[in-house]
Design brief:
GO molecular function, one term: oxidoreductase activity
Helix content: 40-55%
Protein name: SDR family oxidoreductase
Largest sheet: 7 strands, parallel
Mean pLDDT: 95
Number of domains: 1
Distance between the termini: 40 Å
CATH topology: Rossmann fold
Radius of gyration: 17 Å
CATH superfamily: NAD(P)-binding Rossmann-like Domain
Strand content: 15-25%
CATH architecture: 3-Layer(aba) Sandwich
Shape: globular
Keywords: Oxidoreductase
Order of helices and strands: EHEHEHEHEHEHHE
Pfam families: adh_short_C2
Low-confidence stretches: none
Structural class: alpha/beta
Family: Belongs to the short-chain dehydrogenases/reductases (SDR) family.
Strand order of the largest sheet: 3-2-1-4-5-6-7
CATH class: Alpha Beta
Length: 247
């Protein structure tokens, strides 16, 4: 059984990806920060469907907790999955902030940086000894790295940094057969940034060639596809999954 860790998988894109991975026969480590009940709900849905999953607490913005998290992962791998390593790491955890550059505070900037760039960098570094050779890392970035949308400059800048980091991961981990790719969602119906109001959703739909916003499972499906052996030659790529957003 292949095993995947998906950060921020108690809800939204992460939860959808966790459920889709389990449907394809993968064991899943579901991580959460502030919503243990939602993480348990995801685990319950997976196990009721015949899959195997466990929840673990993780604050991606707190690098000081990463060694303890790695030890917790190692313990769960042995006790639940009977393994000493895992195959896939999906750096998904994140949150949104809608402020113009003129109004962003340093604390807001640092918070976004810690979760969206610093966190994935050092979490991946900490987990490397447990990632099996020929595994894969997927970083969730954003279509805002391609188009400039007023109000999301720090978020987009750090997602852009994560996109660049993905290529360096592919370069440096390639000798172990570990691939690294990123997925850049467009407007998706999730709770990120407080969710979508009707007017905001209508505006985003009007900017998308397919005339609507995306659903979380449409990102989860791409995660599963990238992790599959059929796509083993895709490496160091950023794949935008946005329905034709601002083209």
């Amino acid at each position: 059984m292949k095993i995947v860790i998906i950060t921020g998988s108690s809800r939204g894109l992460g939860a959808s990806a966790a459920i889709e991975c389990a449907r394809k026969g993968m064991g899943v480590i579901v991580t959460y920060n502030s919503s243990p009940d939602k993480a348990e709900g995801v685990v319950k849905e997976i196990t009721q469907g015949g899959g195997k999953a466990v929840p673990l607490k993780l604050d991606v913005g707190d690098t000081g907790s990463f060694v303890a998290f790695r030890d917790a992962v190692a313990a769960q791998l042995q006790s639940v999955f009977g393994r000493r390593d895992f195959d896939y790491l999906v750096n998904n955890a994140g949150y949104g902030l809608f402020n113009t550059i003129a109004t962003v505070t340093e604390n807001q900037f640092d918070g976004l940086f810690n979760v969206h760039l610093k966190g994935p960098f050092f979490l991946t570094q900490t987990q490397l000894p447990l990632i099996a050779d020929n595994g894969q890392i997927i970083n969730i970035t954003s279509a805002t790295t391609r188009v400039a949308t007023s109000g999301v400059a720090p978020y987009a800048a750090f997602k852009g940094g994560l996109e660049v980091l993905t290529r360096y991961m592919a370069k440096e981990f390639g000798e172990r057969g570990i691939r690294a790719n990123s997925i850049a969602p467009g407007a998706i119906r999730t709770e990120l940034g407080g969710g979508l109001s009707d007017d905001f959703e209508a505006m985003l739909a009007g900017q998308t060639a397919l005339g609507r916003v995306g659903e979380p499972e449409e990102i989860g499906g791409v995660v599963v596809s990238l992790l599959s052996n059929e796509n083993r030659w895709i490496n160091a790529q950023n794949i935008e999954v946005a329905g034709g957003y601002i083209i």
